[in-house]
Amino acid sequence: MKILNIIDIPWHSALAAYAFDQSAALAARGHEIYFAAAEDSASAAFALKNKFSLTIIPSRKSIMIIGTVLKLKRLIENEGIDVVNAHTGKGQTLAWIVSMMSARPFAIIRTKADAKRPRNSFALGKTAVVIAGSKIIKKMYTEAGIDPAKVEVVYQCIAAQPKAPAVSSSPLKVGILGRLDPVKGHACFIEAAALVLKKVQAVEFLIAGREESVKYPSLEARARELGIAEKIKYMKHVPDSAAFIRFCDIGVIASISSEAVSRAALEWLAAGKPLLATAVGSLPEFVSPECLVPPQNPEAMAEALLKLLKSPEIRLELGAQNRNRALKDFDQARFTEQTSFLFESAAACIGDCGDVPPTP
Fold it and tell me: For the segment 241-258, what is each residue's pLDDT rounded down to a tens digit?
């Protein structure tokens, strides 16, 4: 089966990470993978690295629709594409337009792994199935009036990590991993750290991630204002997120919204680390209820952190539970089986079948 991914965003986001895992899983099953991606984008780099066929298209902000449609039409007809997998709303629209013009029939799949709310459009009517990266994404579709039977939840996979060491570090290390953006809640994390440090001194707070809308100097200034500058460590962008996670004793996701899917949550779970998170987006689907706190509430976050910091037994128990869940619910085999079933079902009924059957 030949599968074309349309992904017109330039950056390496949760959406892109899901697309990459999905493509790797399908390639491992023997399917031929194609990418239509923006030049110099993370998706183009991924395609080249993995020797997938790459067609350059304009990025999502471009208004060059007609040329892109014709390029995709030629690609689909010349290569004999069976399934077009759209990872953005614009990609879905492009796939729909091409399907009206192409001499070769093909199935359309919409993979959704971002927080932008969907619309019940004509393009969606031509889509065989929507693959949602979380239950919260499926809920967004049903709230938009889309038949729930058309939307299948397939959680992203995560490779198992070595077991966390039985002995905690000293001082204990609490880490947050993610791009520096207001939605990620770094300000709340630092305020919670200040509250924790009033009661427990043998702890450090580590911040790792690439600068975007928030810059490290602004976080440093806030820590100085709170009198905890020496207790916050700024790791900047870490090329090996797994190594950073292993270095920490407790993980925190402090997001104030979004998190339609959370790769970071899966990474903390797979490493067998206790994870404290805000109850937004998909995070309640990954994190134990006792480890969820309201967003933008440093007092609640500090209280929950203190419970974990004061009890090595609770930390070890939660870490073990998280690792077991990662191995059971988010393993590569399950992800590959569910993904392959949906793509193969869509391809098998090109032209007349409507919705594909639910995953077994």
Answer: 999 999 999 999 999 998
For residues 93, 96, 102 and 105, what is the CA-based torsion angle, rounded to 10 degrees?
Answer: 140
* Residue 233 identity (one-letter amino acid): K
Place of tokens 């959680």: 155
124 and 18 inside one domain: yes
Q: Same structural domain for residues 176 and 255?
A: yes
Which two tokens mark 110?
Answer: 């919409």
Domain that holds residue 141: 2-157+331-348
Do residues 266 and 275 touch, judged by C-beta distance below 8 A? no
CATH classification of the domain holding 241: 3.40.50.2000
In a domain, 164, yes or no: no
Whether 210 and 102 map to the same domain: the answer is no
CA distances from 73 to 68, 103, 282 (A): 8, 9, 36
Considering only the C-alpha atoms of the chain, give the largest distance between any 2 of them, rounded to a whole number of Å: 70
Separation between Cα atoms, residue 304 and residue 291, nearest integer Å:
7
The stretches in the chain having pLDDT less than 50 are 353
Give dist(CA 315, CA 173) in Å, integer.
12
Burial of 172 (0-12, 13-18, 19+ CB in 10 A): buried
Cα separation of 133 and 138, whole Å? Answer: 8
Same domain, 317 and 339: no
Count CB-CB contacts under 10 A for residue 302: 22
User: What pLDDT score was predicted for residue 36?
Assistant: 98
Q: Are 157 and 25 in contact (CB under 8 A)?
A: yes
The residue whose two tokens read 């790459």 is: 54
Say which amino acid occupies 280. V
CA distance 321 to 226: 35
